[in-house]
Amino acid sequence: MNVSTTCEKYGVIKTHTARRSAATNMYHAGIKTIDIMKITGHTLESNFLKYIKVTKEETADMLAAHPFFTGKGKLRIVKYKKKHHVYILISSISVMKK
């Protein structure tokens, strides 16, 4: 036997819903995962990423719009030597327009 009830949305949405939504919105806004984790209290990134429930499509959209892939950013290339090895670090620098 199935029982169905209706209630007001404010009766169902709790503070935890707001917490999860805030974390997800911060992630979509481009705030670094490590910084959001400091707010939410997560210690493992793997747990945090499960918590915010970002779909593969959302991740693909965010990556497609990132300056590293669109060519609208600059690349910073750092070359350094350590013992007998040469390391090259390439990172993206976002360019913000006013």
Write a structural description.
This protein has 6 helices and 2 strands. The chain is of the alpha+beta class. The protein has one domain (13-93). A two-stranded antiparallel sheet has the order 1-2. The protein starts with 8 loop residues before the first helix and ends in a 5-residue tail after the last strand.
Summarize this entry quickly.
By secondary structure, this protein is of the alpha+beta class. The protein contains 6 helices and 2 strands.
Q: Would you tell me the overall average pLDDT?
A: 82
- Helix fraction, binned, reads 40-55%
Instruction: Output the radius of gyration.
Output: 20 Å
- The tally of structural domains comes to 1
Uncertain residue segments: none
Major beta sheet, strand line-up = 1-2
Q: Give the overall shape, derived from the CA principal axes.
A: elongated
Strand content: 15-25%
> What structural class should be given to the helix and strand makeup?
alpha+beta
User: Span from first to last CA?
Assistant: 60 Å
Number of β-strand runs: 2
Q: What is the number of helices?
A: 6
Main beta-sheet strand count, sense and barrel state: 2 strands, antiparallel
| Sequence of secondary-structure elements | HHHHHHEE
Provide the fold topology.
Elements: H1 9-12, H2 15-28, H3 33-40, H4 45-52, H5 56-65, H6 67-70, E1 74-82, E2 85-93
Antiparallel strand pairs: 1-2
Supply database-style keywords.
single chain; 98 residues; alpha+beta; two-stranded antiparallel ribbon; 6 helices; elongated
